[in-house]
Write a structure and sequence with these properties.
By secondary structure, the chain is an alpha+beta fold. The chain contains four helices and twelve strands.
């Protein structure tokens, strides 16, 4: 794993969790009829392909580099040369790959189990950390930690989780429920001071019966109901 993705992995796993109790005084957002609760299974066919998204980001950064070179009266020495200027440079190959690896790390869960009521939501993810948020009468909440800041709250009918970490790394999850309530889109955007454009992935989930063949569920004291894929 490359530079910042490797360095910040341990702190990331420690701080991704419940949003804190400090309230940001804003009007309550509308969330009437939006119910994420239930069990969800990843739909690979509808979800983004990480390699395709990575290729798209590289092409965009190459176009940006070419425009900068032309504006400065210079030229690139070869396709994408400005992207390969070493591990410490902005838009280096190592930094771009590290950004994609971080996005893959925080979006790879195949199963979700979500509990929601008027005051909180708990997004439990298979073999992964949870996304927890207390709504505090509908207002967004922000908490500062030694490792960064966490934000969560409603944005209209969507739910946002934002984590800001050292070295300019930020992770944003935006949850959107489909019109019929049977599909859930989680748009994850990872940004860094070392890459001039963010990396985004959309993961699409479908409601499922957790007791169906191929899944195993158990009730735990610390994480509630946890479902995992059964080994063949």
């Amino acid at each position: 794993m490359k530079p910042f993705a490797k360095i910040l992995l341990a702190p990331l796993l420690l701080v991704l969790g419940a949003c804190g109790s400090q309230e940001q005084r804003q009007p309550a957002a509308s969330r009437v009829g939006v119910d994420f609760s239930g069990s969800w299974s990843l739909d690979y066919g509808q979800s983004d392909n990480i390699q395709v998204r990575l290729n798209g980001l590289v092409r965009e950064l190459q176009r940006q580099a070419e425009r900068r070179a032309q504006a400065g009266g210079g030229e690139l020495r070869g396709p994408g040369a400005a992207l390969m200027i070493g591990d410490a440079g902005t838009d280096s190959g190592a930094s771009i790959i590290g950004l994609a690896q971080m996005a893959d790390l925080v979006t790879r869960s195949q199963l979700l189990d979500i509990e929601q009521d008027l005051s909180q939501i708990r997004v439990r993810r298979e073999g992964d950390f949870a996304l927890d948020c207390d709504f505090h009468e509908g207002r967004p909440t922000v908490v500062e930690t030694p490792l960064g800041s966490e934000f969560c709250g409603w944005d209209g009918h969507q739910l946002l989780f934002v984590l800001s970490l050292p070295e300019g790394l930020a992770i944003r999850h935006r949850l959107t429920l489909g019109p019929d309530g049977q599909m859930l889109n989680i748009a994850t955007t990872v940004s860094s001071d070392r890459v001039s454009s963010p990396f985004s992935l959309n993961r699409v989930y479908r409601r499922m019966d957790p007791e169906a063949h191929g899944f195993s569920c158990e009730q735990t004291l610390t994480r509630g109901k946890v479902c995992t894929t059964e080994s063949p």
